[in-house]
Amino acid sequence: MPTEPQAHNALEVENLHKSFGANDVLKGISMCAKDGEVWSIIGSSGSGKSTFLRCLNLLELPSQGHISLAGEAIEFKRNLQGHILRPTRQKQIQRLRTNMGMVFQSFNLWQHQTVLKNIIEAPIHVLGIDKAQAIDEAERLLNRVGLWDKRDAYPMHLSGGQQQRAAIARALAMQPKMMLFDEPTSALDPELVGEVLKVIRGIAEEGRTMIMVTHEMRFARDVSNQIMFLHEGCIEEQGSPQKVFYESESARCRAFLSSVN
């Protein structure tokens, strides 16, 4: 009988550190996410969650460590102590970033562009996709996130939930292999959270690799393959939702989960 193909590692991180001056925010984070896995990163404010996510696509430059995407190591210029100075090849960074869609807390839509134009600009100018094709794909994505009727609206005329769904469609339009979500519902009114989580759940169910910083504990438990609990820049607990939520060996993790439930 033919053997099933093994899942590849979509993301490998080894001993990642990040310092801002004398402030050590990340203190040796390691993880390995396979293709199609959903990872949720949880923890108290200031634990390093968002900084870790921003280091993955080099919005923040790590101080030390190694990052590989789909088996390709990001090359860094380092000093004699091994501290990272800068990426060696900027073209490599630009290429790898196109494979990572990122959705931020604050939507980051261009306010002077319609929803449709927000979505088609990068595929046309970065990926070189024909405008008509980009529009067709954008309208398909807008229909998927429930915003087809808002394609000609400007962001200021949308609710926060609608803006975040438009931001998700914009990220998906780049055809990324991996999606990064940085607290995608934290800026939303409570009644708007569900509509965004429904869209994210659909992305998870289609088998796309996802790394998500979130404070939505029930959602993280239900959709994730792995949970990482950070405390003061270190991994305090990591494992399946069953392990982290119900069998955690970390007193800090248990206290955190108790405080948010």
Structure description:
- It contains nine helices and twelve strands.
- The protein is an alpha/beta fold and 261 residues long.
- It folds into two domains: 1-99 and 178-261, P-loop containing nucleotide triphosphate hydrolases (Rossmann fold, 3-Layer(aba) Sandwich), CATH 3.40.50; 103-175, no CATH class.
- Strands 8-9-10-3-11-12 form a six-stranded mixed beta sheet, sandwiched between helices. It has a four-stranded antiparallel beta sheet with strand order 2-1-4-5, covered by helices on one side.
- β9 (178-182), α6 (190-205) and β10 (209-213) form a beta-alpha-beta unit.
- α3 (115-125) packs across α4 (131-144) and α5 (160-172) packs parallel to α6 (190-205).
- The radius of gyration is 19 Å and the shape is globular.
- The mean pLDDT is 93.
Task: Summarize the model shown.
With 261 residues, the protein is an alpha/beta fold. The chain is built from 9 helices and 12 strands. α3 runs parallel beside α5.
CATH topology of the largest domain: Rossmann fold
**Head-to-tail CA distance between termini:** 47 Å
Q: Which CATH C-level class of the largest domain is it? A: Alpha Beta
**Which bin fits the share of residues in helices?**
25-40%
Q: Count every helix, treating DSSP H or I runs of 4 or more residues as helices.
A: 9
* Fraction of residues in β-strands: 25-35%
Mean pLDDT: 93
User: What's the CATH superfamily of the largest domain, by name?
Assistant: P-loop containing nucleotide triphosphate hydrolases
